[in-house]
Structure prediction request, 548 residues.
Amino acid sequence: MSAAAEDRPGWGLTATAFAVVAFLQLPVIVVVLAAFSTTSYLTIPPQGLTLAWFGKVLSDPTYLSAIRMSLILACGSTVISLGLGVAAAYALFRKVLPGSEAITSFLMAPLVMPAVVVGVALLQFYSMSGLRGSLIGLLLAHVVITVPYVVRSALANLSGLDLAVEEAARVLGASGFEAFRLVTLPLIAPGLVAGALFSFITSLDNVPVTIFLISASQTTLPVLIFSSVEMGIDPSVAAVSTLLILATGIVLLIAERRFGFHRFV
Amino acid sequence: MMSRRQGLLLISPLLLVLAGFFLVPVLMLLPTSVSVYEPGTGLVKGAWTLANYTQIVTDDYYREVVWRTLGLGFSVTLICLLLGYPLAYLIARGPERWRVPLILLVIFPMLLNLVVRSFGWIALLANRGLINNLLMQLGLTAAPVKLLFNFIGLFIGLTHIYLPFMVLMLVAAIRNVPRDVESAAATLGSSRAHVFMAVTLPLSAPGILAGSILVFVLTISALVTPRMLGGPTYQVMATLIYDEYMQLLDWPSGSALSFALTFMAVAIIWLSSRLTKRWAGMA
Prediction:
């Protein structure tokens, strides 16, 4: 079989694959369309065109404070996860610790545990220790669920690293920390972008842990949408969702242009 | 060279955070799960029981929820495999210029907020949603077909959410199959279908297994999509845990269910890793 023939897959396979891709975009398209409807209930296709729902969202203090809270949590937990995660991964990479494999499994354990279980465990723990509704409690909860992505990405990038470059820096007089900061970190930084982005999105997206821990007055955007859907839907939910879709799309395109994001997933 | 003490210094902050905010809280659920719950008053001090666990297998309602959760896990995994393989194959073996756009179209919905995607499915599947409107306009049905708050709704929504994970795992697996082996089989006279069935598919089996475990574990643990598309009445294990904690305040039952769910997830992962090892041993 020639390479050219291999590159021309059958039309049945191609059609199925494209139908599946279309299926994946379907709810996204529907949400965007619903956001422009003039009716006060959700209709697809939209009746008329209006931007009013976007105005309503962007002037609603509940939405604005939820957006702010989501961003604070996502930025905060990503920064903390990067700091703790890269340090831990570096120690594992240098193989100076006994039982590295067991430690690595422990660092990855929050990925295996169902998120709802982490949520109820922290709810009970925070209720006893008075951390419930506190920002620091929420931040640490988000670190627990985001840090495995950072550790995994850091370990993957470090494993491709030649230790000789760091040794060379040491020979030329750099201290251990300088060698890491000036040589190793810049080398793995582009690869860490994927881990950081996953961490940021995981935090921004999270409901199953957050919903157990937030106070009624201070909530995050997905939890707000989640609870407003339970009460009934109006197109402002579609409008705020459309803003999220736009933001996600832009971030993905920038990450792809700058770093070739698709190679890291 | 880095000393062991420096290594410990680097890793201990994260170990402390995970011990304090993950390990200890989860372990503290254990005593709760064997506590006695008195409706209205809360936990009874000094009384212990296994009833919270036994009711999961003896009580009809709980049993139904467990079977429903497992049933969803299996059917969503199967359909993700069936829908995901052709797409993954096209990405891995199709024209070069399609590769990146297709991967991005798979990643994009995956990165998109879960609540937003579930919300999109509500708009599609509701009684007056897009699909029912279409069916009625085409005259295929007179009354709306019930697509929400039942198995169909959860099945569609969960498939949509976990399909990208399966596709990405399969792409990696198919790309690991050496093209030389495929070409060799073709040169020896195999038809395209036969090359696929005899070479590509079996060699991508590790990826199929890994993707299936991932999708299964994620599906049985899902809370947001089942809650939004199943409503308060069509429950799975995760939504039942949510209700036990937030509505009924029955923490003992909720924590027993939490351990049952964790046990199911861990058991599946353990079983499949045994399976993979045995496989590797045979090859």
